[in-house]
Amino acid sequence: MVAVERSKIKELRLDRAAPVTLTDQICQHVEAAILEGALTAGARLPSWRDLAAQLGVARGTVKAAYEKLIDRGLLTTAASPGTRVSDPLPFKGAPTVAETECLRPPDFQHRSEHALVFQMGVPADDAFPATLWARLHRQAVHVTALRTGYSDPRGLAELRSALAAHVAIARGIECSPEQIIVTSGYRAGLAMTLRSIDATGKQAWVEDPGYPVTRLALELSGVHPVAVPVDGDGLDVQQGLELAPNAALAIVTPGQQAPSGAAMSERRRSELIQWAHVASSWIVEDDYLAELHLSGRPANALASGGGSDRVIHLGTFRKTIAPMVGIGFVVAPLPLARRLIDVATWLGAPPSVASQLALAEFLREGHYLRHLRRMRRLYAQRRQSLLTVLTSLGVNNAVPAGLSVLLPLPNGFDDEGVAIEARHLDLGPAPLSLWYANASRSHAGLLLGIANVLERSIHHDCKRLLAIIRAPLTGKGSFNTALRSPE
């Protein structure tokens, strides 16, 4: 086999202002190097982790580029030899099962059909009001069987009215049901928003660290994410102004920042709204678990105050009730409402009518607010229990981070490797490094979701996770004193 030839692609340069996505730019460069003979048959490419660090992009961006080239037969991959140029070239024949498995998005590569211990972004399995929801859904199915016409593409009027009442009470947002569009969740709402504001080829502020899916979604939409640092007050607006003053939009989680859990300060909120007005830009408010803030009363939504005409509010019930509910919503600011509704009408599709009716009743009868109160109490108890057990096992540097606990790891530690190994034990910690735009191990750590931490097994689960961290596996890095077993 031909030895690794990193120099063959070291001159790769990405144009973040180009209309072509970063993934496609990487594909084009590698393909050109192969066709020109700079990369010969059998030549080994850098790992997608190393190339991502070199280019300053998310690992998923490089991985997606490699997978596109694998699907086209230009590259092959194996656990030990790594990713290599196909030999012979070009590859012909039907794709194998292994190759078609790589078609799945990176975010779903290691997902389980059931919620794992320490997994983020899922509600408590044992606290879902299954009996109540089943009754409401059965009733809704019976009602919808009598409906034969097309429903409103914005969503059922009953649900939009219930949502308008709910966001007014719980999030301080004053809006008409006509401004609400029902979606299948956050991703659908974001896709609709990006189409509505014609963001292709433009820049967007994203939180750093921030939700990895948001960055990837922007790149796939031809929007160039600009990573803006986050501190205890939320997104640093002044840094955003220095990095990309004319960005078309900013995507923020002001109620409960993901992953830190911090709420955006009033000063930062004012600065962000002022920037949006001056730059004629949009703010996309991802209301990530803001209703489940565990310290005091949740702050009102960014869309609730002055300047709300520049804020597009995205909400979802997947993380507060259950993923299978499959419903989210967009509160459209009046200047953009007509365009958002057009996109929803011609390019979108609302969730099933039965699910919408069931959720409308769940909201109208007060079940949802009662459910949130119960969850806040339960999650506060579970977070404290997790911190207490970790301390008893010799971990003294874990800190609360919203609906998770952050366990910092030493610089250079392979937190992603630990997370993958943990999944084999039905544990689902999230690697902190992937939440940073440069996916650097200088930000190594694990995010431990608290929703499915159970009192009866928490001590055992923590010991199993710490055993993986402390195992002397190559590439993980050294350990700090906080993770050593107590004497």
CATH topology of the largest domain: Aspartate Aminotransferase, domain 2
Strand order of the largest sheet: 3-10-9-8-7-4-5-6
Mean pLDDT, as a whole number?
Answer: 88
Q: Over the alpha carbons, how many angstroms does the gyration radius reach?
A: 23 Å
Beta-strand percent range: 5-15%
Characterize the main sheet. 8 strands, mixed
Helix content: 25-40%
Number of helices: 15
- Overall domain count: 3
What CATH architecture of the largest domain do you see?
3-Layer(aba) Sandwich
Flag low-confidence runs: 1-6, 91-98, 478-482
Describe what you observe in this structure.
With about 475 residues, the protein is of the alpha/beta class. Helix content is about 40%, strand content about 15%. The strands form three sheets. It has an eight-stranded mixed β-sheet with strand order 3-10-9-8-7-4-5-6, with helices on both faces. The chain has a four-stranded antiparallel β-sheet with strand order 11-12-14-13, with helices on one face. A two-stranded antiparallel sheet has the order 1-2. α2 packs across α3 (about 60-70), α6 (about 155-170) packs parallel to α12 and α7 crosses α11 (about 335-345).
